[in-house]
Amino acid sequence: MVVVEEALAGHVRSRAGFVSETAGHLMAAGGKRFRPLLVLLAAETGDHPDSDEVVTAACVVELTHLASLYHDDVMDEADLRRGADTAHSIWGNHVAILTGDFLFSKSSELTADLGADAVRIQAQTFTRLVEGQILETVAPQPGEDPLAHYLEVVAGKTGSLIATSARYGARFGGASAEVEEALTAYGEIVGSAFQLSDDILDIASDSGESGKTPGTDLREGVPTLPVLMARAANDPADARLMELLDGDLADDDRHAEALDLLRKHPALDEARAYVVAQAAEAKAKLAVLPAGPVRDALEAFADVVAVRSA
Fold first, then answer.
1. Residue 31: its pLDDT value, please?
2. So where does this one cross the membrane (predicted)?
């Protein structure tokens, strides 16, 4: 990860100092480096996990993720990311969007170094990521299950890139086709679980724990797992909560009341249980790996995703 971190610092630099400043802003704020870490872990299933291609692939997925965050924060009108001011709140929407585009293009440059097949995989991943982002902005179609719609959004917006992280690690680390397929499926499930736990944190955490403004999705009216499960409960005792959710949560007092009611609602524990079950399903995909430290680490990785607090 030290090598990856150093490489990332170089990749966000531009010949223009201002572009280097904006592109390096979120990376300097920190982050879990979840995706490159998964690339490195998955590479350990092969016979050359220390290859240059593995490091390049780790940078590809993190730069793609960082780029999407610049765009996400504009769409969400979020003021904080990783405990720091968001790019759009400092430099405005135009600069934030173009910085995201710059990072996407840097990621594409690196992907080209990995070969035509990696370019195809990256393009397919990017298609799914953007589709998921777009679907998040529209309501479910008439007759469509809101929860199914939400999970489709999650699979595209987050699961796709994390699946590719595991796939790249296995492929460029020299793992077999069987292991690559299993780890891709593992990454897809873990990736969705990661986003679901992130959405739970949007309700359950405070800004000091997560580095994000709590209730951002709630304020923006973005349906998430706890909200959808609270709605599905159809409990008359939730009348006030439903009234708030159906109204305008731009008002700080109404937003705070809705957040408080959701934190006390059984749906929050139901959502947590769902994510733990997802982690168990992901771990089952690792049966193709021999017992040992690599499999143990990947299993622990899934568990951390399910119960993380930040």
1. 81
2. none
Answer whether 289's CB lies under 8 Å from 270's CB.
no
The pLDDT value given to residue 223: 84
d(CA 182, CA 189): 11
For the entire predicted model, the pTM comes to 0.89
User: Count of CB atoms within 10 A of residue 234's CB?
Assistant: 8
CATH entry 1.10.600.10 includes domain 2-307: yes
Which amino acid does the sequence have at 10? G
CA 179 to each of CA 162, 296, 298: distance values in angstroms, whole numbers, following the listed order: 16, 15, 13
